[in-house]
Amino acid sequence: MIKFALAGNPNCGKTTLFNALTGSTAHVGNWPGVTVDKREGVYKKLDEPVQIVDLPGIYSLSPYTPEEVISRNFIIDEKPDCVINIVDATNLERNLYLTTQLMEIDVPLVVALNMIDAVKKSGDKLDARTLEKALGVPVVEISALKNEGIDELMQRAAAAATQPRTGSTVLARSSIAHVIDDVKIALRGKGVENPLFHAVKLTEGDELEVSEHPDEMRMVNEFKEQHKDDVFGGDFEALVADERYKYISANFSGALVRSAKREKSALTKSDKADRVLTNRWAAIPLFVVILFAVFHLTFGEDLLYLNAIFGFAYDVETGNAYLDAFVAVFFNSAGISTPGAILFNLTDFLMNTCLGGWIAEGMAAAGAAGWAQGLVNDGIWGGVAGVMSFVPQVLVLFLFLSILEDSGYMARVAFILDRIFRRFGVSGRAFIPMIMGFGCSVPAVVNTRTLSDDKERIMTTRVIPFFTCGAKAPILAAICGALASAYTGVNAELLVFGLYLFGMVMAIVMLLFMRQTSMRGEVPPFIMELPAYHVPQFRSLMIHLWDKLKHYVKKACTIIVASSIVIWFMQSFAWDFTLVEDINDSILADIGHFVTWICTPMGFGLQLGTYGWVFVVAAVTGLIAKENVVSTFFVLAAGLGFAGAEQTESGIDEVLFLMQTTGITWQGLIAFCVFNMLTVPCFAAAAVVKGETPKGRFKFTVAFWMLTSFVTATCLYLMFTWVWTVAIVAAVVALVVLFFVLRNRGVIRLGRKKNNTPAKE
Ligand code: GDP
Ligand code: MG
After folding, report:
1. Are the C-beta atoms of 26 and 19 separated by less than 8 Å?
2. How confident is the model at residue 759 (pLDDT cuts 50, 70, 90)?
3. What is the DSSP code (8-state) at residue 556?
4. pLDDT by residue (tens digit) across 555-581?
């Protein structure tokens, strides 16, 4: 199969084009660095199918970050039949910088002038013909978003792919043309592929090349020696870049005619919006307000606090239980439901009140055996429905976060936060994978490839799980909901938001801690281009949500069903495989007892007496997948005799019941939430972290998660339960801080003095 590669700057629309060509649903986001791995698909509208490869964005072929290496290696080593260079037409000059480098490779090349819709809208005029003449390769105007010009692009690319192309360079008339030519001939003599490309990179002093072609590097160095007093002073890298830009502005800027209207109003709409949104003082408060609004609309029960202010809510009573339950989905004693609450209530109504109830009635009516009823109602349906009823609400959260992301706002937040994050030891760039962690840790960890500094990458992957992911949201929602029902004056929504914030604060605290201990070093500089704001695309938002939904359903049908059945089995049977009367005689209780003592300091261990194993088991199943925690609650509550299957409120009632049965305190429940938020995220995320961490470092990461979650949950439990312990914890923290301050001032010195630390005398 012939193979086309999509290459271009970050955020120029490669993935949008990839999706349009292949019908895929890859993630498109309005910030640089969304695609961090290559991705393949097939285009079928030509005579023969074409394999399309979407590559991470690159500004140049001299890579700095791991994800840029992927792109360069693919183009050089895998020899696609044609490279489609996507160029953001609204940002022509900068994008063409990469084009001038791609031209130097011996590969058929076609330039796709993307975002032509945006160019036309702004009133500018762009002439593809002029550009084509200047570049010497086909140029096609397209709009990946509006699906315009795409078939023409593919036809021209297919035509180009039939003929071999020899690289050409815009440096042919520069002062270093000679040495490039000489090196090229030498490389070609040795049979090196793409001699021109390698010759130019060698001249630039590209690290990867210098080690590979030492002989030719000597030629370059000799030339440098001879000309070190010339105009270019020996910095060939800067010289090459300068020559490229000069060539671009001399030849290609003629292709673009700016509209008179735009020349005058120097400030675009984006600039105006940024005056407010990235204002020095307003930016951070605005971000917190926006984030809170998102959480309110997702987890709140009283829309805009209308009920709290006007107090009009009441419970509908028509006498028909189903009708009442249905009306309560939208309006109940808490007030008018927010979008998140409506969806949550609705799925809960459908999954538990209707379907779950019917299944239970049906099984009973059919006279199924007791154990079979238990297996289906409690083991399978209980666990799966428990998790699935939270999914729509979690999707609402994703939707809001995707809107913020696709509009271009999140990229601004990275900039706003850079100032603060820098003090904590990472650059603002690290914020992007962290905020992705609110969705799922797996893609978030992969996204850390956009970070160029190794220490920054490791630190970021470690704290990503502290950004509560979609699978942990149900744990918080169920427990906080139960606490709000059990205690008057507790607001579930504020409690959930508070826990989310606590996770973020812990991330910052641990970043600071790592920078002071195992990860000392400089914070790398932060350079990222800000994309223009735009209205989020409905289609791409829906694709994103659809992907998430599929992911959940798949998980629910596999891991969660399996774990629920196993848990149900272990809690129903004793070691001799007879059904148990008392759950405390079950296999599960027996195994649980082994680890119960460890959890005692966190408030959900031995102090719960015979039921000490209940929360321990939930936490352990959560290590496999965090959805398991809530599904385990469901299965266990049923096993402990909770008879509320028909009127249950997804998890909340189950947790309430578990509170009564086991006697766990609210302090213990909060510690339980925090432990789950900070511990080993899940098997999937742990595996990805392992793959992305340098060899031998992963075990420290696991230890880091274990210790952080255990110590933090213990401290919180102690401080909430016995207020006087606050003094001890505060004293210990103060001592640690004092130690670091003194060490940084040079008052305390530990260990051997390293040779490379310059003496300060
Ligand atoms: P990538 O980083 O190069 O893969 O770029 P993406 O495909 O993720 O797109 C970046 C942003 O540009 C997204 O917000 C897209 O909606 C937007 N975009 C992509 N193609 C077009 C286009 O043809 N016209 C306009 N106006 N926007 C586009
Ligand atoms: Mg992309």
Report:
1. yes
2. very low
3. I
4. 888 888 888 888 888 888 999 888 888
Which one-letter amino acid corresponds to residue 569? F
3-state helix, strand, coil in the chain (%, to 5): 65, 5, 30
Average pLDDT over residues 336-356: 86
Whether the CB-CB separation of 359 and 442 falls below 8 Å is answered with no
Verify whether ligand 1 is closer than 6 Å to residue 30 (CB atom): yes
479 touches 472 (CB < 8 A): no
Q: Between helices 454-463 and 698-721, what is the axis angle to 10°?
A: 40
Residue with tokens 């023969």: 48
pLDDT at 754: 46
Nearest alpha-carbon partner for 27 in 551, 554, 393, 413: 551
Which ligand approaches the C-alpha of residue 28 most closely? 1
Max intra-chain CA distance, the chain: 97
In terms of pLDDT, which residue wins out, 753 or 200? 200
Closest of 83, 70, 75 to residue 112, by C-alpha? 83
Residue 757 pLDDT: 40
87 — phi, psi (to 5°)?
Answer: -120, 125
* Rounded distance from Cα 470 to ligand 1 centre (Å): 26
Q: Ligand 1: which of 14, 145, 148, 537 to mutate, most ligand atoms within 8 Å of CB?
A: 145
**What's the chain's average pLDDT?**
86
Measure CA 5 to chain center. 25
Give the CATH class of 177-263. Answer: mainly alpha
Domain boundaries defined on the chain: 2-161, 177-263, 723-761
Q: Which two tokens stand for residue 653?
A: 């009632």
What's the residue count for the chain?
A: 761
| The pLDDT of residue 676 is above 90 | yes
> Best of 11, 71, 116, 120 to mutate for ligand 1, by most ligand atoms within 8 A of CB?
11
pLDDT band at 123 (very low <50, low <70, confident <90, very high): confident
Tokens linked to 676: 């789950």
Is 732 a residue whose pLDDT tops 70? Answer: yes
| Amino acid letter, residue 359 | I
Query: What 8-state DSSP symbol labels residue 378?
Result: I
Q: Which two structure tokens, joined as six digits, stand for 729?
A: 């914890």
Q: Which residues contact 190 (CB under 8 A, 6 or more apart)?
A: none
Q: What's the mean pLDDT in 235-240?
A: 81
* Mean pLDDT for the stretch of residues 282-297: 88
Are the C-beta atoms of 255 and 131 separated by less than 8 Å? yes
Q: Which architecture, in CATH terms, is 2-161?
A: 3-Layer(aba) Sandwich (3.40)
State if residue 636 touches ligand 1 by the CB under 6 angstroms criterion.
no
Q: Look up residue 334 and give its two tokens.
A: 């808490």
